[in-house]
Amino acid sequence: MVREGLAALQSGDVRGIGAATTRNFGQPIQTIIPWATNYFTETVIGRVRAEFGDAFWGFWMLGGMSGGGMGFIFAPEKKALAQKRLQEIMSATKRELQSALPFAMEPVVYDFAINERGTFADLLDGEAALMPSGYYTLTVPGLLRQDRHSLSPLRRAELDRFGFACRNRPELRGVVQTLFEVMLPRGKAESAADQTLTALLGQHGFDRVQHEQIRTDLKEGRIGLAQNRLPPSAVIEDVQPGDVVDAASWLAGLETGAWSSGAGVPPVSPGVSPATTTSGNEHRGRDAPATGGTPTPLQLGAEFREIGLAALREGEVAVVTLAAGAGSRWTQGAGVVKALHPFCKLAGRHRTFIETHLAKSRCISHLAGTAIPHIFTTSYLTHGPTEEFLARQKQYGYEGPLRLSPGKSVGLRMIPTVRDLRFVWEEMPQQILDEQQQKVRDSLRHALINWASSTGEASDYTDNVPQQCLHPVGHWYEVPNLLRNGVLARLIEERPQLKYLLLHNIDTLGADVDPALLGWHIQSGACLTFEMITRRLEDRGGGLARVNGRVRLVEGLAMPREEAEFALTYYNSNTCWIDLDQLLAAFALSRADLADAERVTAAIRNLAAKMPTYITLKEVKKRWGHGQEDIFPVTQFEKLWVDMTGLPEVASRFIAVPRLRGQQLKDQAQLDGWLRDGSAAYVARLCEFCD
Q1: Bridge-partner residues for 555, per DSSP?
Q2: pLDDT tens-digit series, residues 568-620
Q3: Cβ atoms 410, 380 nearer than 8 A
Q4: Which pick of 245, 354, 417, 605 has the fewest CB atoms within 10 Å?
Q5: Is the separation of the CB atoms in 653 and 531 below 8 Å?
């Protein structure tokens, strides 16, 4: 490739240079560094090629990688048009993808020219001897705060000349207004933020009754950072062999046909729950096909698969994908929607998380002969962009029912309690600073404690823009949102035979409606079946344990001792099979009750009161004036879905699945390993893309 490019350079063949650099980018560079391109880059190249045809001679990636710097080579007669259209194409593509990809700036087409003069300067004299206006915006406020007689004669002369220019030169008249913004920032009374916040709270399902109960519990010390943890007296042990069914071997056997009798799961008699639980609920599953003697894992896997396929053919299953988060960890804090991020190339094209999950549901739908309803949960942060993106993509051609479940639960941040502030600063691990730095930090903390005390501990935090006052309330509410927003009621009306839901995270890419796992869940008779994977060192955030003898999932926030987590064999993938009628019974609801909004709200509130409430502190920025900002700690709460396994009235089972199925993509740094360990190929095999 290098020799080809050098030969083209020596012969003056610009078109040949373009062909060589294009092949170099598309083949060796992307083979060595798959992340040298992204969906924005590929889309721009494709649109330019489609519009200019033979007049587009080639592309090369400059040092920025993935859109940071790109070169396009056009036929000379098309240069002027190409400069104009390339800017329009890049800007239009950026607008389409601004909720899916982080952009540091508006795309720019550079028009380079040779500077014949080199570096030069002009001497300004008299009334024209002024610095740029931005200089005065930075320096004048500080000078005006000083006594005029303390300024040097040079500074006083500078201010006089600047004042004269502001009064007489029209282009500088706006600088005075900017100075007022810096020196006298607008107060809270000058905005309508309170009304907007009130409207947003009402729009997104803010529950004032629950909020006041949480405030009361926080003030009285029943909940808080210290109370997030289980009591130190809690006995946390690893699970025993009978607590988890290992499905990895018989799932692999169904895929490859390579079975060994007696391997994998323990022998289970047909018609009997294949797992034990401490809940004591009766078995409610379908009878498995009769077999003679003790079935082998191959026979069990095949039987479960037939049970699952029968349910799929009858239209008894729907998929719920949790996609309400903005994925700030995935994009290092950029304001995009993770579900819309084109994270990787699969089947030759960049695919978003949503497209990948729909491709898996399409594949299973064709296998079963019945289209599977697929629901994506959203929040006040993600609903609009997701709805718009799916409409633009024409729902990715998905043939089955595709629904968005808008969030109907939101929280209002509160002023932290002094107790929680001291817990974070005094009981959590802290970096030791040198003496002077420690004094500064202690002074800041003392000021924040005074702020919390004077403002009112656990009072509503409203002194900011509305988006900084709201907070998400945890993924436990994603299923109740289905009850409140009417999505589940409408789906049941369309499909009264609906009985089971598969709930999973948007970043658990290996999860699909596997018929064998579905059959196992049906056969078990459980309300909830959680899929587990074996723990690795990097898996943090809790796991499956016996807590005082009961098998349940424990969140990392609830671990009384950090080291207890490392003794647990299984990590939670948050993929959950749900028996719909049993779940409604846990809420004290029936299918008919879903039409009664008040009853549904009360039922959600009652069950939420039984769930642990985790308190966290978040830092928020308050911007004021002209570029100033302060950072304050605020309190917010969340409730998590896996804590349903701690409720005695909810029958829960646990099944171990292969890591390729259960691992999650939380950080883009995981993508290299995800490609190398076969995970990407595994996911691609599950998909049927519509292109």
Answers
A1: 542
A2: 999 998 999 999 999 999 999 999 999 999 999 999 999 999 999 999 999 99
A3: yes
A4: 605
A5: no
> What does the pLDDT look like over 49-66, one tens digit per residue?
999 999 999 998 876 555
302-322: pLDDT as tens digits:
889 999 999 999 999 999 999
Q: Which residues pair with 534 in a beta bridge?
A: 570
Residues 527 and 315 sit within 8 Å (Cβ to Cβ): no
Q: Is 224 helix (H, G, I), strand (E, B) or coil?
A: coil
Q: Is 70 exposed, middle or buried (0-12, 13-18, 19+ CB in 10 A)?
A: buried
User: The whole model's pTM is what?
Assistant: 0.82
For 625-674, strand residue ranges (E) read 628-638, 652-656
For residue 552, list its beta bridge partners: 545
Structure tokens at 521: 């869940």
b/e burial code for range 75-114 (CB count within 10 A of at least 16 → b): beebeeebeebbeebbeebbebbebbbeeeeebebeeeee
As a whole number of angstroms, the distance between CA 675 and CA 677 comes to 6
The residue count of the chain comes to 691
In whole angstroms, give the CA distance from residue 152 to residue 133. Answer: 21
Query: Is the separation of the CB atoms in 554 and 640 below 8 Å?
Result: no
**CA 31 – CA 179 distance, rounded (Å):** 53
Q: What is the dihedral of CA 10, 12, 18, 24, to 10 degrees?
A: 0
What are φ and ψ of residue 537, in 5° steps?
A: -60, -35
Please name the residue that has the structure tokens 């943890």: 229
- What kind of architecture, by CATH, is found in domain 208-410+467-686? Alpha-Beta Complex (3.90)
SS (H, E, C) 13-27: CHHHHHHHHHHHHHH
Residue in this structure with the two tokens 């309400």, named with its chain if needed = 324
Instruction: Give residue for tokens 């968005």.
Output: 404
Distance CA 325, CA 466 (A): 18
In the chain, what are the domain boundaries? 2-97, 126-183, 208-410+467-686, 418-456
